[in-house]
Amino acid sequence: MQEVIKIEQLTKSYGRLLAVDNLSLSVKSGTVFGLLGANGAGKSTTIECILGTKKADGGQISVLGMNPHTNRKSLFEKVGVQFQETNYQEQITVGELCEVTACLYRNAVNPSDLLTRFGIADKQKSPVKDLSGGQRQRLFIVLALIPNPEVVFLDELTTGLDARARREVWQILSDLKEKGLTIFLTSHFMDEVEALCDQICILKQGKMVFYGTVSEAIKNSSCDRFEDAYLWYTDEEGKNSENF
Question: Which of 80, 176, 180, 228 has the fewest beta carbons closer than 10 A?
């Protein structure tokens, strides 16, 4: 399988704080990769470096065979991104936002089809600000898929969704994976990670503490359940820290 994302010895600091410490990983085409860790572990910084929105201090990054800094325009056409914290114009409607997004890409898919698939087609004339948390989350996933990307980055994709809606989103993403989409996600829901991820990387204070499959994570820990294994690797239960 072709490598879609390859990172070699990535480092990134903010002053004296080492946010990402010598990280290396690869993501194969048509797989779901989970980047896990507590708040402040370095997940956001890693993704921003992969996308080229932040410049790494050291290391090499390749996405779809391209350098995210020198090939930003070409990469933009082939990558979809959904983040939790996203702000839009106060009165823009769901339909207008989807149309504006589609206009940015050469090979955009029909937004109406995606809105229907994610169960929010009836909200096309509604202002984005009036959507519930779960509806907004579904919309943000739709926006990430409008470019018809080869790889999509999803940040806490089912936050705010109820149990049924979460499973519906999982099924849609599994179907898209079967069609060749590569998915790079972060999540604090370990059942979601178990259901979707082919491989995972667990970060702790910027360092990789595990890299492999969910079953390998359990096997190499002292635990019988993945959620317990995750806490065992991170040793972060009950701790709070800044986001990076």
Answer: 180
User: Residue 240: what pLDDT?
Assistant: 42
Residues with Cβ within 8 Å of residue 95, at least 6 apart in sequence: 111, 124, 125
Under a CB-based contact definition with an 8 Å cutoff, are residues 59 and 39 in contact?
no
Which residues contact residue 208 at a Cβ distance below 8 angstroms, ignoring those fewer than 6 apart?
23, 24, 25, 201, 202
User: How is residue 166 written in tokens?
Assistant: 């979460």
Distances 155 to 37, 164, 208 between C-alpha atoms, Å? 12, 19, 19
Q: Would you say 198 and 165 are in contact if contact means Cβ atoms under 8 Å apart?
A: no
Cβ atoms 37, 234 nearer than 8 A = yes
Q: How far apart are CA 12 and CA 43, in angstroms?
A: 12
Give the closest residue to 34 by CA, choosing from 186, 140, 230. Answer: 186
The pLDDT value given to residue 8: 98
Residue 71 has pLDDT above 50, yes or no: yes
Q: Residue 191 corresponds to which tokens in the numbers above?
A: 């059942």
> Could you give the CA distance from residue 44 to residue 48 in angstroms, rounded to a whole number?
6
d(CA 242, CA 6): 27
How far apart, in Å, are the Cα atoms of 235 and each of 34, 52, 94?
Answer: 18, 30, 41
CA distance 145 to 149: 6
pLDDT in tens, 131-189: 988 888 889 899 999 999 999 999 988 888 888 888 988 999 999 999 999 999 999 99
**β 3-14/17-28 pair status:** antiparallel
Query: Which secondary structure element, helix H or strand E, spans residue 59, and what is its range?
Result: strand 58-63
